[in-house]
Design brief:
single chain, two-stranded antiparallel ribbon, two-stranded antiparallel sheet, 18 helices, Serine Threonine Protein Phosphatase 5, Tetratricopeptide repeat, about 525 residues
Length: about 525
């Protein structure tokens, strides 16, 4: 997608220069300099619309930006889950997340709030200004507006799960706006906007898949299925009717995939999940786009601490590493836990392509780029252009399996969806008739924990289910009272179901009023 976005931005800039090009000196002095472009003067041609939606996509990369030494924003949604720990002690904010003592000053919390609302602000500009661009191809306009709706909905979906009642801003703001200091809206109102946006995106003429990395119909439908699944659970607790909506929406994607297996499918191997050449294809329904000429892949905090697994030699921070008990919780023979085959590795090659050596512990392989870092006898390119997955078809299957089971117990289609995940892992799945609704429910939950780990998904499962996978018992504990292996024996509390509002936001905006329960205010 990067080449497309850069081309569109360049074309938009060129368009601005043409507007002030062939004029006399007097006219020139009356023209507005391109550097003084405003939202009002900018949105005048279709290329401006393309540049604006490109800027909105670019905002997704806040997730990988730094959050102090040896840490990135994405670790917010991993450190809290109990499936990872750290080999470094040099980032106090990260350690506070692991220890469950984070507050409104924690950098990751602040950066997530700011990053999400920046995406929302950019999407609002697109939705407000692009409809007025004329002439512009109607299909192009509708598509861009659909993409903006998808991006805004996705940002709000993350935000409402993290903070609960939040400001609901749907128009561009200036200091003169009546809602420049917005109050918090109810979760119900936020979810209504999310559903409305995703429904509009569904009708925007998007292709089922888009190898450029832009929003596509499979991603929109799966995101909507996930929203319905979340609304069925806590805190809205809408129950059976929303499980049915989730199942039906996910099944639309599955039906299309079954008819078009070369377009949407599970990858044959786990190595394909983190292969550069597979970006935005087949299983990857939506990804955050990375290319080193603009921004390289941000997941290097998964590298082990000072072990020579890349061309850089002994390096890496080990800021996020698997909890050993979680790694050991995979069933015997599960390919996902096999060294360099699945989602972990326990050995690698010195400096990326030299002699094989033992790492002494399991590390996350899911985001490791062999092409960039090297592999047995093959030097790496040193250019980590791997994308970061946001929605995989594996999740679509598991959404369907879980939601359909809640509608009326496990049926053949729900069983087949879960079994596909286990088949790829080379695991034997008990016959459908051996499951009850309760045992199938937990079987699907286990697959979510083991299949979707380290993709910033597990925390949201914990919150909507009010359950946490216990990697020692292989069962599920209640959220409140569960002790993460990485938390220094600090149990999860009711307050942890929400993040604290960033303290600076409370200081700047008195209409936010009170802090989320259990956290210190201002």
């Amino acid at each position: 997608m990067r080449h497309t976005l850069v081309k569109n931005i360049s074309k938009a800039l060129l368009g601005g220069l043409i507007l002030v090009g062939p004029v006399g000196c007097t006219d020139f002095l009356k023209e507005q300099a391109p550097s003084n472009l405003t939202p009002t003067s900018f949105y005048t041609i279709p290329d401006h619309a393309e540049a604006a939606i490109a800027a909105t996509y670019q905002g997704l990369r806040f997730m990988g930006d730094g959050a102090g030494i040896f840490s990135s924003n994405w670790q917010l949604l991993e450190a809290l889950t109990g499936t990872s720990t750290t080999e470094t002690a040099q980032n106090s904010d990260l350690n506070n997340l692991y220890g469950l003592v984070h507050d409104g000053n924690t950098a990751h919390v602040v950066n997530y709030w700011n990053g999400l609302y920046r995406i929302i602000a950019n999407a609002n500009q697109v939705l407000d200004k692009v409809p007025g661009i004329n002439p512009m191809d109607a299909a192009q306009k509708t598509k861009i507006l659909g993409e903006a709706r998808f991006l805004r909905a996705s940002a709000y979906f993350t935000a409402v799960q993290l903070w609960g009642d939040i400001p609901l801003v749907t128009k561009p703001q200036t200091a003169a706006s009546a809602d420049f200091l917005p109050a918090r809206s109810s979760k119900e109102d936020v979810y209504k906007l999310i559903v409305d946006d995703l429904t509009a995106a569904e009708a925007a003429g998007l292709a089922w898949m888009d190898v450029s990395g832009r929003a596509n119909l499979a991603a929109v439908k799966t995101q909507l299925a996930k929203v319905y699944l979340t609304m069925a659970g806590f805190p809205l607790s809408k129950g059976a009717s929303y499980y049915k909506l989730a199942a039906d929406k996910a099944f639309e994607v599955i039906t299309y995939a079954n008819a078009n297996p070369s377009t949407i499918n599970l990858f044959t191997t786990y190595d394909d999940v983190h292969k550069e050449s597979n970006k935005n294809r087949v299983e990857h329904l939506f990804m955050i786009q990375y290319n080193t000429s603009v921004a390289g892949n941000p997941m290097d905090n998964f590298y082990p601490n000072f072990k020579p697994v890349t061309y850089n030699g002994p390096g890496g921070t080990g800021s996020s590493v698997p909890v050993t008990s979680f790694y050991k919780s995979y069933e015997a023979g599960d390919l996902r836990a096999k060294d360099q085959v699945g989602y972990f590795y326990t050995t690698y090659y010195t400096n990326g392509n030299g002699a094989q050596f033992d790492l002494g512990a399991p590390y996350v392989f899911k985001h490791f780029n062999r092409t960039a870092n090297g592999t047995a006898g093959v030097a790496g390119t040193r250019q980590n252009n791997l994308n970061v997955p946001q929605i995989r078809y594996a999740e679509t299957l598991l959404i369907y399996a879980e939601a359909q089971n809640e509608v009326g117990g496990p049926n053949q289609a729900a069983y087949d969806a879960m079994k596909r995940i286990r088949d790829r892992a080379t695991l034997t799945t008990p016959d459908l008739g051996t499951y009850t609704q309760a045992t199938f429910r937990e079987a699907v939950w286990r697959e979510r924990w083991h299949e979707l780990c380290y993709e910033q998904i597990t925390w949201f499962d914990m919150v909507r289910l009010r359950k946490v996978y216990n990697d020692k018992t292989n069962g599920f504990d209640n959220f409140v009272g569960h002790v993460n292996p990485s938390s220094n024996n600090q149990p999860l509390q009711e307050k942890h179901l929400l993040l604290p509002i960033p303290k600076q936001e409370l200081l700047n905006n008195p209409n936010l009023k009170t802090q989320n329960p259990g956290y210190p205010g201002v």
